[in-house]
Amino acid sequence: MSEEDFLSFVENMNFKGKYFCVFNQDDIYDDGSETPALEQEILAEYLYFFEFDDDSLDKYEMLKYRQIGKKFCVLDKEQFLRYEDDCYFKKTPDFLEMRSFLRNETGLSKDDADDYANDIMICFATQPGNSEESVYEVILESGIYNCDDIAFSHRKLEYLCQKVIYTSAILHVLLGHTPEEIFG
User: What is the pTM of this model?
Assistant: First the structure.
């Protein structure tokens, strides 16, 4: 396919329910430069925070910097099609341990514990990086700390979530790979 045909195809595609935007450099950096179509940047909505302010631009720049030298994760067709479900993720041993903790040591019902565990994994998928700060933000986003009627070790949950994000969570900073796949 020629570059012209490809660009025409992309410009006329209707991405129903899309969760990304295509940006020119001047959209991001406001420097007045024009970006050739094949060099425009495609960003997931949760990575650009709906408008670029200094803080989100700094986070985006740090994400791009941390991705230098890494290759995109390319899945085979069968694996790729599993991600058609926005909530799909691999049920790794570290995830199962975290979910087991939520099921058995928090007083949550099995369904509620599973919902929190799944929410935590989905939140990890939207985090630009993998840091202790990211782990804490994800746990806060899940809302589990707001449950007044349960008592459990927050430290243990944070530890288990760190195990997940440092081993088996698919991360943007690693271009779709898990830390285990990249670092062994």
Answer: 0.70
